[in-house]
Automatic annotation (TrEMBL):
This is EamA domain-containing protein. Keywords: Membrane, Transmembrane, Transmembrane helix. The chain crosses the membrane at residues 35-55, 67-89, 101-119, 185-203, 209-229, 241-260, 275-293, 300-323, 335-356. The keyword Transmembrane helix applies. GO terms for cellular component: membrane. Residues 211-347 form the EamA domain. Its main location: membrane. It is a multi-pass membrane protein. It holds the Pfam family EamA. InterPro entries: EamA_dom, EmrE-like, TPT_transporter.
Length: 369
């Protein structure tokens, strides 16, 4: 006998009435508070993200502080020093157990984070912030094609449409082994095409090495976010994650500073003492706040949603860089068209994820009945 619910008929009147019952006031208040906290967190995240990008670009590209490895190393050292008193409240035994169980993930996250920060800061030496942000808008393609999005929809010869797409597909499949829905994959292809149109205008204003480093940083950011999401699913709080990762990233960055920048900085520092101190302190404090907000976003909202939310700050950064950093000449018709296409892809992807979440919620409610 076929159950009436599975044969396409309407559910019994009692079940339909129960489904139409209004939510309790307590549950409604919880949802409102949760939504308000998410809105506040997203707002703080976007402000910190935009502020850090503008400050780094101004420091490395306009203020003459051309020491990206030193800047990144100071970010890590400052984070470790500030978080150490808070993290050590947990006791040594808790840290020993966590490090024993999760040291491979911590090493991978620290390495990816160091590469992401260093390569991105190096690219800002000889690339506009506008082009930097457009390239990094492919992070969702790096983070989520994970699910073979580009491999399913594009031929092998076209897999370079999104920066680092081939590497990203392999990395994400190995880490997550999940596949996208057709709608998600199509949205990611639209994002990738928009990025390609915006970047390849025929006359790039950034130096080739800076563009290559920015693309590599985008791939590393995808790996960092994927591993962070998996590691924090094991209930590792934001402060301890940043505390563990900072020394690993510092160990990766410090040798490069010593080899490539130490002598130049010794010659630069005496004549620019105050400005160098202000840049290092301000950017380190802002980077610490951003990293904490970023990790909290991944934990509360998920890594994919964090990348999609982060893309909507691109328009704001493009406008701010145009008026504050004098990059108005970067806005060609092709770049504007590419940005519009990419943002349309972001909107479609967000809509697809919201619809999928609602469908899962409905199935859970039906199953509980």
């Amino acid at each position: 006998m076929v159950h009436p619910w599975t044969s396409g008929r309407r559910p019994p009147p009692a079940a339909a009435a129960a489904a139409r019952e209004p939510l309790s006031p307590v549950f409604s208040r919880k949802r409102v508070r949760r939504a308000a906290s998410h809105v506040l967190l997203v707002s703080v995240f976007l402000c910190l993200n935009s502020g850090l990008n503008l400050l780094n670009k101004w420091s490395l590209g306009h203020a003459g502080f051309r020491f990206p490895f030193l800047l990144s190393s100071c970010h890590m050292a400052f984070s470790f020093a500030v978080l150490a008193p808070v993290a050590l409240l947990h006791g040594w035994e808790a840290h020993r157990r966590t490090l024993h169980q999760q040291w491979p993930g911590i090493l991978c996250i620290g390495s990816f984070m160091a590469l992401n920060i260093a390569l991105n800061n190096i690219s800002l030496l000889d690339i506009s912030l506008s082009l930097n942000q457009i390239i990094r808008s492919a992070i969702p393609v790096v983070r989520h094609p994970a699910r073979h999005a580009l491999a399913c929809f594009l031929p092998p010869s076209a897999c370079t449409a999104g920066p680092g797409a081939q590497v990203a597909c392999i990395m994400a499949v190995l880490i997550e082994s999940r596949y996208p829905s057709p709608q998600e994959a199509a949205s990611l292809v639209v994002i990738s095409l928009g990025v390609m149109l915006a970047v390849w205008q025929g006359a790039l204003t950034g130096k080739p090495y800076a563009i290559a480093f920015c693309v590599a940083a985008t791939v590393c950011n995808g790996g960092f976010m994927t591993l962070s999401s998996k590691l924090m699913s094991e209930k590792l709080d934001v402060v301890r994650l940043a505390f563990y990762v900072a020394p690993v990233s510092l160990a990766c960055l410090a040798p490069f500073y010593w080899v490539y920048e130490h002598e130049h900085f010794r010659a630069y520092y005496p004549a620019h003492r105050r400005s160098a101190q202000a840049i290092l302190l301000a950017s380190s404090a802002l980077a610490l706040c951003y990293n904490l907000a970023h990790s909290l976003m991944i934990k509360r909202i998920s890594a994919v949603a964090t990348t999609v939310v982060g893309e909507f700050k691109i328009l704001a950064l493009l406008l701010l860089s145009a008026f504050l950093l004098g990059e108005k000449s970067e806005f060609t018709p092709k770049m504007i068209a590419g940005c519009t296409l990419a943002l349309a892809g972001f909107a479609a992807y967000s809509h697809t994820k919201l619809v999928a979440a609602r469908q899962r919620q409905r199935r859970q409610q039906t199953g509980s009945e």
